[in-house]
Design brief:
The chain is mainly alpha-helical. It is rod-shaped. About 0% of the residues are buried. The chain has one domain. Helix 1 crosses helix 2. The longest helix is centred in the middle third of the chain and has 60 residues.
C-alpha cells in the first residue's frame, strides 16, 4: 500500500466513522468495529485451515509415493532374487 492509498484509507475511515456516529450513534460504530475484528479473525482462521489442509495433502502424497516406491523395490528385489536362484528365466 502506498502512502497515498494509506492517507485515502484514513480519510475514508474518518468519514465513515463520522457518518455512522452522526446518524446511528457511537454504539453503532463500536458494533461495526466489532464486526470487522470478527471478520479479520475468521479470515485468519480460514487461511490457517487452508494452510493446514495443504500441508496434510502434501504429506499424504509423499506417503503414498514412498509406499509405492517400497512396493516397487520389493517386487524388483524379489524378481532379481528369483532370477538369481534360477526359478525364473528371461
Amino acid at each position: 500500500m502506498t502512502w497515498t492509498q494509506a492517507q485515502n484509507a484514513k480519510t475514508a475511515e474518518a468519514e465513515l466513522r463520522e457518518f455512522i456516529v452522526n446518524n446511528k450513534g457511537f454504539s453503532a460504530y463500536q458494533e461495526l468495529l466489532k464486526i470487522r475484528r470478527e471478520v479479520i479473525a475468521q479470515r485468519k482462521e480460514a487461511e490457517r485451515q487452508a494452510q493446514k489442509e495443504a500441508e496434510e495433502r502434501t504429506e499424504l502424497i509423499m506417503t503414498v509415493f514412498a509406499i509405492l516406491l517400497l512396493i516397487f523395490a520389493a517386487i524388483s528385489g524379489a524378481g532379481a532374487w528369483l532370477y538369481y536362484m534360477g526359478w525364473i528365466e528371461t
